[in-house]
Amino acid sequence: VHPWCQRPARSCDLDHIVPYQPGGPPGQTSTWNLALLCRRHHRLKTHGGWTYTMIRPGVFLWRSPYGHTWLRDRTGTTDLTPPPVDPPPRRTS
């Protein structure tokens, strides 16, 4: 479910969207809290500062550690990062 990843599901890891807590609340391993990530993207999410939420089943909103955002769904990836804003021109006297 990572933006632009094409790895087949059969070779992916199951990731807890909300991190698993031993002894935590019941239902942590329910489908509402699991998504398929390839090993590389699983490690990026776990150790690299990437985060994501499931908006609804099959629709995921990703945020990079640099503030970029993407929407991933069954149709592919949509970049939601706003374009950079040019600073106002400097006034000269």
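Next protein, fold it too.
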Amino acid sequence: LHDCGPYPTMALGSARVRGELLPLDPARLPELDRLEGALPFGAPGGHYRRTVLPARAEDGREVRAQLYVVDDASAFPAIASGDWRSVPNRLDAWAAYAASRPVAER
């Protein structure tokens, strides 16, 4: 997990990360792909690639989760804890970023 300022980004690797698992209607995936700048079906060349990885829910269940990853996050500092919630001032940075985006992207 890497710190991009107002939001985190994830690169594939061997480290564990903490995040949130959210239920989503699969019909909405193309909409999320557009928002995240991902090409359909995880194709390379977009800002992110959507991929499926194993995840563990808070109740211990093993699930398969759809995640957006970048091919190269080396320009951004790693979040050593693997937990975006541990980054100081993350909510202020996100609020400022969100306010700068068109309403449809918030």
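About the second fold: The two ends are 22 Å apart (CA to CA).
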